[in-house]
Amino acid sequence: MKKRPLNILRLITWLPVGGIERKILAVLPRLNRDLFRVRLVCLRELGALAPELEKAGVPVDLCPMRTRLSPSGLWNLAQYMKHHQIDLVHAHMYRAALPGTIAARLAGVPVVVSQVHNVNSWDTARQRWQDRLLCHWRNAVVAVSECVRQDVLDTLHLPEEKVRVIYNGVDLATFSNRSVRDRVRAELGFSPQDIVVIYHGRLVPQKNPEFLVRIARDLTAPAGQTVKVLVVGDGSSRAAVEEAAGSAGVTDRMSFLGRRDDVPDLLQAADLAVLPSFKEGFSNALVESLAAGLPTVATRVGGNAEAIETGQSGLIVPPHDDPAALAALQSLVNAPEERLRMAQAARQRAERFSLDRMVADVENLYLELAEKAGL
Asked: Which of 18, 273, 278, 337 has its CA 20 to 30 A from that of 103?
């Protein structure tokens, strides 16, 4: 008798255009259709990425909940799970994992997984207590880095074997097209002599985007060259950073592009990447920079030091230490041969974080947990 595919339900609050959501969009359509039948449910609203996921063959539904513990919302979500004969629920972050775990319990779902994407993910002691209690109903917790895993273990007091690491992965081929470099640099107004430092990601306080102004102001280039800072992304801090650039007199050395869909090409136009964050889980932007062959200076937060082998594919500096970050960037600006060596090492390092490997890790976890549950 042929076995049917496992019915997998992924839960998230909604699907805006963000890093976590983009990763879901990349992974779910690639799961083996012979083994897994995947659906996604949003608990707040569908969001901008829902049509893309539907187009890729993954059904997306809305089970709205007025609050995370709404009795009617929990009941409706449990009935949805029963109707679709869900075998495994995989919920992202506390706000989806709390109702998802309870509804799965009500529906008799055999396997429940939650996923944590950042350190310090719990806002209150009550959230920590609730998650700690509900983890008894979960078969595994996925962390996106060893640093996040340790934070989960310390916060929820779980057995070590219950918390697994699955690193974020990127499609390496998407970021490897060096042939576009000259065209993109010309379109952006960069000369062949410019040394371009790129930041791509959200412009929010935890990312320390104000540091980008210091890069433009304080880095010096060899004779005949100029350091330019390319800023790709948007967020609540963007206006303040642009104002600071004006006050520092460096607007001619900074380009603010906002949110873009051609990030792989823009990375090829750069010579260095920077990630000066105060807080990270495991940065998609960092792995994308490595895949594009960019030596990267990043702070020692979250999984940054797990992605970058400092001195090989980039340099790791302490957080909240702008002088150290500037010194690291300056050392690479002054050493073109070192940048070339690190570029090759960065591409090789990125292979550890390929999208194919991430998909395989997710599939292996599902099959392992399903087997343990007797499915």
From this structure: 18
Q: Tell which phi-psi region holds residue 192, choosing left (phi > 0), alpha (psi between -120 and 50) or beta.
A: alpha
In this structure, how many other beta carbons lie within 10 angstroms of the beta carbon of residue 373? 14
The CA distance from 290 to 42, in Å, is 32
Residue 277 class from Cβ within 10 Å (0-12 exposed, 13-18 middle, 19+ buried)? buried
- Give the span between the Cα atoms of 34 and 96, in whole angstroms: 27
Cα four-point dihedral sign 301, 307, 311, 315? negative
- Digit-by-digit pLDDT tens for the chain (375 residues) are 457 899 999 999 988 878 888 889 999 999 999 999 999 999 999 988 999 999 999 999 999 998 989 999 999 999 999 999 999 999 999 999 999 999 999 999 999 999 999 998 888 999 999 999 999 999 999 999 999 999 999 999 999 999 999 999 999 999 999 999 999 999 999 999 999 999 999 999 999 999 999 999 999 999 999 999 999 999 999 999 999 999 999 999 999 999 999 999 999 999 999 999 999 999 999 999 999 999 999 999 999 999 999 999 999 999 999 999 999 999 999 999 999 999 999 999 999 999 999 999 999 999 999 999 998
Q: What are phi and psi of 49, to 5 degrees?
A: -90, -10
Candidates 221, 279, 227, 220; CA nearest to 252 is 227
Q: Tell me the three state secondary structure of residue 77.
A: helix
DSSP label at residue 354: B
Rounded to an integer, what distance in angstroms lies between the CA atom of residue 300 and that of residue 322? 13
Contacts made by residues 71-75, CB under 8 angstroms, sequence distance 24+: 73/43, 73/99, 74/99, 74/102, 74/103, 74/106, 75/106
Beta strand pairing call for 111-116 and 140-143: parallel
Residue in the block written with tokens 């303040």: 240
